[in-house]
Amino acid sequence: MWNLISLVGLGVGYDITERGMELLRECDVAFCERHTMPVPEEYIKTLEEKSGKRIETIGREDVEGEDPLVLKEAKERSVCLLCGGEPLAATTHISLLVDARKAGIGTEVVHNSSVFSAAAGKSGLQQYKFGKTVTVSFWRKNYEPTSPLLLIEKNIGGGMHTLVLMDLDAELGLMDAKLGLGLLRKMEEKEGRKVLPEKVVVLSRLGYPDEKISYGKISELVEGELGEAPFCIVVPGELHEMEREYLELL
Amino acid sequence: MWNLISLVGLGVGYDITERGMELLRECDVAFCERHTMPVPEEYIKTLEEKSGKRIETIGREDVEGEDPLVLKEAKERSVCLLCGGEPLAATTHISLLVDARKAGIGTEVVHNSSVFSAAAGKSGLQQYKFGKTVTVSFWRKNYEPTSPLLLIEKNIGGGMHTLVLMDLDAELGLMDAKLGLGLLRKMEEKEGRKVLPEKVVVLSRLGYPDEKISYGKISELVEGELGEAPFCIVVPGELHEMEREYLELL
User: Which domains does chain A have, with CATH numbers?
Assistant: First the structure.
């Protein structure tokens, strides 16, 4: 009836907030963008049952680019766009807000937990002590970057922890944590020096019921059972006593 | 009936998740810790009405230290501890989890949006491009630190944005953004060089209905209407085109 785009985050735990559910119930049309963050099919079904709305899964091209579906719809109806995690963690969604404002369409954002805050919390590490985030990309022929390791080195030098995200490749899918750890060690070899601390944290399926958090020696983690994708890694910098205590209890 | 501590975040927008509400409804006793993050009285009342539970406001000493109230209660009953923002952003709550685990008490954490993720999002800036977070403390006689500015300088040097938190003092209360900006400029004077970019973002009452976000020249911000506390500031580093576009639309 009125044009509005509400961007509703589902958090790392697929746990909508009360305001998010209100907007989902009230909207004319509901979409879920599962490209930037996976959202389990099962959780979409639960939301459909609770809200009485049909939720259509859409792609990135429906959100940004030339006259995307979401913007077209929002010119005449109120649109609720659901997404995993924190909605504004993805460039795609910020770009959508910019386009909506230019088109005179109202916007509301319902924030939720993000891998950026939850990964820190789950590791018992202080958020304000995290440096710049790093993404480990797949190595290819003539493309073997060591920049992630160099950034980790910089963070450690400043006493900071590092959140390490895993690459998502159209063909290869989500990078496995063991491959990620292996690549970090290859980067050490290439650079010819030791950068990584003895122990790191691997987080598997953060927020899912089968979430798994492992803290240990890299050499043991790559041999052990780390759970399933999606993964992220936290490389601790200088540890305070309580941070260490929390990690050792994991 | 069973011993469990559930730590439920209320997010920056005071918007509980469905799982959080479930735990609040099911618990034997409900507390709200409003020391580490303010939670409006009105929102507590709304939660009491919706859940049918009485929610008692408690202090930091009830959560950590020598035999705190929450831990004592949780030895016999299930306790739901509500707090603003993301529960594990506060050291107090991580310390509580450590103590609970040592005492053999089960724990569940319901994550929610945090100033760390929402401030970035609200500014349209990419989270992974943030460097270490900085807190500006009140200057006192013989205590005029410039370390926050030096960290901002380091972040900018690495192309990174900086989240600047405002000090909370027992006597002086929450620092005002204008004082915070003034102190950052005094630090520049003391260090004898220009570090800050021309324009910064000031976020007032993030997540409240009267939230206010201002982007502009520091000289104009300190003269203008910025809203009420709590405040935080974002000092942008290198801006991508879309980030700049979003900021200019604020």
Answer: 4-113 (3.40.1010.10), 116-249 (3.30.950.10)
